[in-house]
Amino acid sequence: MNIALIGYGKMGKAIEEIAIERGHNINAKINSTLTVDLADWSNTDVCIEFTRPELAANHIEFCAKKQIPIVVGTTAWYDELARVRKTIIKNDSALLYASNFSVGVNLFFELNRHLALLMEGQKSYTLSVEETHHIQKLDAPSGTAISLLEDILKINLNYKGWSLRPNNQQEIEVQAHRLPNIPGTHKINYDSDIDSIQIQHIAHNRKGFALGAVLAAEFIFERKGIFTMSDVLKITP
After folding, report:
1. What is the DSSP code string of the chain?
2. Which entry of 133, 158, 178, 193 is 20 to 30 Å from 76 by CA?
């Protein structure tokens, strides 16, 4: 499979390594010097996109019009998802997007949903979410943290939203830390006067994210439609 990388930073290079190990070819590397308009797309089977929030939707629509399936790991662009969906459907193309491509994180999503069900009636516990990433990460909280929060809010109706600076007990407190050379940590805390319950996912490196992105590319190849990592891993959201 010929894969084009839209974004060739640390994540793009990690994806390249995994893709080659799995027998794929990287036929284009889009960066600040080679834009999507200048690249040769004639032999591209799938694109993998990790860039910036303000660029992601345009990259998706560009690929959709060329009917090239695209895997998108950029976050914080989802307010444009409705527009993007129309373009994908109109051009009979394919999109797979996720706030996190790590297999472990997607299992953690499932664990978080199950724990939220168990804790929904336990009103003596106060819920908080904590995430830590490298200092280059632009969005805070992370897209992964927001996915965790949105899943909780669908289940636990005691909370009405979340905030980095909560004003009342109906908002989940979120702490977002940025430190050097940290691949990513996400923690869900339930605290009471008697005890604490915590679950967390700690990434040791970028390989898990890169592998998940390549698995997503293998899944979406020759498919049409809009998908998430739940489709790749067969996890019930």
Report:
1. -EEEEE--SHHHHHHHHHHHHTT-EEEEEE-SSS-TTTS--TT-SEEEE---HHHHHHHHHHHHHTT--EEE---S-GGGHHHHHHHHHHTT-EEEE-S---HHHHHHHHHHHHHHHHHTT-TTPEEEEEEEEETT--SSS-HHHHHHHHHHHHH-TT--EEESS-SSTTEEEEEEEEETT---EEEEEEE-SS-EEEEEEE--SSHHHHHHHHHHHHHHTT--EEE-HHHHHT---
2. 158
Domains and CATH numbers, the chain: 2-101+207-233 (3.40.50.720), 103-202 (3.30.360.10)
* Overall pTM surpassing 0.85 (yes/no): no
Residues noted as catalytic: 133, 137
Name the pLDDT band for 236 (thresholds 50, 70, 90). Answer: low
- Res 181: pLDDT: 81
pLDDT at 150: 96
Task: State the Cα–Cα distance between residues 104 and 51, nearest whole angstrom.
Answer: 22
